[in-house]
Amino acid sequence: xxxxxxxxxxxxxxxxxxxxxxxxxxxxxxxxxxxxxxxxxxxxxxxxxxxxxxxxxxxxxxxxxxxxxxxxxxxxxxxxxxxxxxxxxxxxxxxxxxxxxxxxxxxxxxxxxxxxxxxxxxxxxxxxxxxxxxxxxxxxxxxxxxxxxxxxxxxxxxxxxxxxxxxxxxxxxxxxxxxxxxxxxxxxxxxxxxxxxxxxxxxxxxxxxxxxxxxxxxxxxxxxxxxxxxxxxxxxxxxxxxxxxxxxxxxx
Length: 252
Prior knowledge:
Low-confidence stretches: none
CATH topology of the largest domain: Nuclear Transport Factor 2, Chain: A
CATH architecture of the largest domain: Roll
CATH superfamily of the largest domain: JHP933, nucleotidyltransferase-like core domain
Mean pLDDT: 97
């Protein structure tokens, strides 16, 4: 039986494959936590999925997504994995952001599982790659390969620095994700100017996140075998210090 986190991840993967069959892969790019999870071996599951998209009218994207979500082949693919799509909503459909809220149901446990898919029109960053999702994840769920355009580690780190700096409410997951991106080599080159200008605010916000926020917001989304390791203040303090030192090095 899939966990709630795995149920969401399977849905995201099947959506990406079906969406990529409808829409030119060059027109959109996976970003955020899903990108880190599916391509950079993050141990943090992502509750929602975020993508950048370009050259597509609001109505065209809305129609493509809405038709996909009721397509018999897509729904059958979900059912094969013990998942049903029971509710959809479109709370935001503007020229800058289009968002879908979805409720899944795990057919074995009966649990209702919420997730979101959000498309942003902010333009696509330069450093992208069209690749297959990590093979280990694909094997876990017994899926065919899922090929999608996504942001590379350097672009993802720049985006994460700006996210940490600019969110209205600081998120501990941004600090956690920065550690992964730094370990993966994302900080080996200078940041682009926009992200470099956000470094001071990012450092201040990284220092402001405490263990309780991390435990409440992130710990439950880690793969179970890592929850004990990160379930103490010392592990968080060490990670936080390493991220701040890495950001300081980028500022020099």
